Fold this sequence. Notes:
disordered N terminus, alpha/beta, 18% strand, 8-stranded mixed beta barrel, globular, 266 residues
Amino acid sequence: MSSYRPRHLAPSSSDPEPTGASRRSLLRGGVLGAAALGTGVAALGPAAARADGFFGQDVSGWQGEVDWAAQREMGSRFAYVKATEGRSYRSPAFDHQYLGAGGAGLVRGGYHFARPDSGGPEEQVDFFLNNGGGWSADGITLPGMVDLEGYHGLPRDYGLSQQEMREWIHGFSVRYRDQVGRRPVLYTNLHWWNDVVGDWTPPNSPLFLASYHHETPTTMPGRWWAWELWQYSDNGPFAGDSVRWHGSAEEFERFVTDVDYDARGI
């Protein structure tokens, strides 16, 4: 049985976003009980008011105060909020963004920007969990997401070989699963993953794919054959980055609530 207990809203750092990362890296960036927010997935109403999908977004400190009521009115139904980076940085915007999204009726969860150059995966998972990255089957909390991509000013592989990077990602995934009961969502893009990680994907890992095109992406990184979440724009319509879920609101509910959720693309 997992030893994890939800530990979301720890005291936040007053530090600004790290200065070494690119805006693209930083732009993507707990659990309150269901009674605190008074809603679950089933009570969120219809899918986003568009004919072609179910939509959400991800935000970080770059967005500051977000008008979450306006985001929901525009059709956003979920939000990933940047919680942590590496082993010591916690976004000072996390608390008000996370609580604000939940208060507006969005399903919300935290994400961690991975820094394989600044500490082991287990250490970074624990830091993430202690600062907003956990999950529980309460119907309003997204499984934690880990952001895997390059960092401005550092080698895009963080000085690791493909095998070393695979071991780092595997270690993060296993530690997160052991602590909360399910695997994290893996965020990446086609070129970074294929160049730095190669022809490999950890089992049963939901893919959050960054691909800024009008057409639905069909070429996947590693050994994935499909995506769960598609980050299709970094300039609207929603604050931060705009995201599309692959299927229906009912499928999304299973993703949010089911501890035995099976990733569709691996």
